Amino acid sequence: ISDDVPVSTADDPDFPDRKTPVTQYDGHVIENTGLIKMDFLGLKTLSQLKEACRIVKEAHGTDIDIDNIPLDDEQTYRLYQEGRTVGTFQFESAGMRKYLKELHPTVFEDLIAMSALYRPGPMKYIPQFIRRKNGQEPITYDLPACEEYLRDTYGITVYQEQVMLLSRKLAGFTRGESDALRKGMGKKIESIIREMKPKFIEGGTRNGYDPKILEKIWGDWEKFAEYAFNKSHAACYSWVSYQTAYMKAHYPAEFMAALLTVGKDDVKEVTKLLGECHAMRLEVLGPDVNESHHDFGVNDRQQIRYGLTAVKGLSYAAVQAIVDERDKNGPFKDVFDFAERVNMSAVKRSGLECLALSGAFDNIARGIRREQFVGENAKGEVFLDLLVRYGTQYQQAQAEAQFSLFGMDAVELNRPTVPEAGDWSVLERLNRERSLVGIYLSAHPLDEYYVALQHVCNLKMEQMEYLSALAGQTVRLGGIVTAVRAGTTKNGKPFGVATVEDFSGTGEIALFGESWVKWGAYLSVDRSVLVTGNIAERKFQPGVYELRVTHIDWLADVGDKVIERITLFVNTDALTTDDVEMLTSYTEEHPGQTELKAILIDATNPHNQLRMTSRSQRIKVTRQFLDDIEASDALSYSINN
Questions:
Q1: Would you give the DSSP letter of residue 194?
Q2: Is 528 helix (H, G, I), strand (E, B) or coil?
């Protein structure tokens, strides 16, 4: 290489002590020297697939040959058709999921086309592509000869390869000329495109085609040059996407566990994936010394279990010691059995505390609450310290008895007494758990406000970075305050910035001057708030938008008052006895302040509807109620509409 181009050295990010030779020419120039430029893309998706296959093997003993799965799997295409593609490669955005539902893909070619079309530019052709696919618009070709290469994309030019093949067929281009045309379009080199046009028109005319139609085709290709995409690239992306969709369709728990394992260090990613698990009706359980492995796994009840390495403060050596002992001698009976068997020098006192407070002992605690592990006895001794001392002494006694010349039995040791301890508040318990696991897991402090936050608030915390889309609108948002910082501006005015978390993630709310004086008291750590405001452009910063707070309530005071009405839509043909019993028992057992309406719909004639409003029965709308409605084939709902 150094014979053809100048080279230098650069630091290697993977090996700080090494230098890597690099060329000093830009990538778009290097090919003119005679060298080949290659791009190697590293994908975490490949790690996710490998981990998913490992978890399936661990849970079921089944080996998945991910490179040889069938390309006509109905279950996989059903997942695409229903837009259930969160977590799959390249197909998980909201816009893509919407188009997949409309397209109803049935063959792999549909996925390749969507991969190529879903980008700025060609996206405008997606509605036409969908209409032609679904028989809502006739499939037409400029020339009958075009059908051979445009049949799979319903008459629409989508790929560079189609341009190459058609230029050869219609105008007699050589392979070299068609590749030059591809390069000109793909890299938007106008000089090449202009140079090729006369050759195309002349060659096509010579082959008997109408010059006007050839002009029209070339004009379409010139527009196509704005977004030209090669099919081989789209096919590879779609194949990786199909592999992820296949795993999600056939092994949903194992696939989501793999995604959580690979993304465990990114709290935002984990939060998103846990939300998807909930939507998939997959239960995610906290760490457990009898069920957890190193990373996320799946138990025999198809529940996802947190991995022990996800517990902060627990060393890899401690995890290895726990798993090795459990694999060798079976599950742990209780915390004393755990202390007697697991190497205390590996787990240490700090590791034991992390396990206790993260909930990893909950299933073997035998009535010992998490508070009691850090509780003190009358002598001021903490129970965790007593447990470590007991385990260490027990193991020493066992070792001494084993190596005794006289074969003595192990010395009997008294198990330490568990001290009494006061109960933590729900919030304190969850905060301790979160500090060790990274997120609220066994519950969420906002659970009782879930319906209001998800269905009344029109702005989520994860959207705080994209306020321009809501310019001029009145918004509602809410969550729990996790941090506050206050100060004084250069002009001497007070200000405060609160970090607020909801089910989507975290965001910041900033208040200045009188607004901070008026509303700052509401924004204290661990308080749950409902914020009303409007989105306006910042003074002296055109194009930059901010939230201007107009009112703040504590969610505890608001309760379910903001849920004015819930309307149930009932498909009478699909209604079952279970649906009726669920609705009857729920309305009786959950009185509240929300008006209940029902609209009975005749599926054979949707215009036949019976509308009913309960004048005496008002209910409290809970997350479980909404989950039960969504699980029914006969029921759907809207809130406050």
A1: H
A2: strand
